[in-house]
Amino acid sequence: MAVKIRLSRTGTKNAPHYRIVAVDERKKRDGAALENLGAYDPRKGKLVQFHDERIAYWVSQGAIVSDAVKKLQKLHQQKQA
């Protein structure tokens, strides 16, 4: 089973909200997730929640990080600096 760390959309039609999730890559975009790793609000452009240590754990287990989540990681690192 290949695991990907990617975004899962929640929210309403004109008010999107995304969760950062670890999920089997064969599942649908909004399918059952293995673990919730954070949340992102694109309307405000900020991370609501971000679990660095859990993302690092999944990457160490062989998970593949999507491009969108990589951008959010950079945003989080810039915010901490």
Q: Give the number of DSSP strands.
A: 5
Taking the sheet with the most strands, its summary is: 5 strands, mixed
Radius of gyration from the alpha-carbon trace, in angstroms: 12 Å
Distance linking N and C termini: 35 Å
Low-confidence stretches: none
**Range of helix content:** 25-40%
Assess the beta-strand content as a share of residues.
35-45%
Provide the spatial order of strands within the biggest beta sheet: 4-3-2-1-5
Global morphology: flat
- Mean pLDDT score, rounded? 92
> Order of helices and strands, N to C?
EEEEHEH
Give the helix tally: 2
SSE class: alpha+beta
Features:
42% strand; flat; single chain; alpha+beta; 2 helices; 81 residues
Description of the structure:
28% of the residues lie in helices and 42% in strands. The chain has 81 residues and is α+β, with helices and mostly antiparallel strands. It has a 5-stranded mixed sheet with strand order 4-3-2-1-5. Strand 3 (35-41) and strand 4 (46-50) form a beta hairpin. The protein has helices at 52-60, 67-80, and strands spanning 3-12, 15-24, 35-41, 46-50, 64-65. The longest helix has 14 residues, at 67-80.
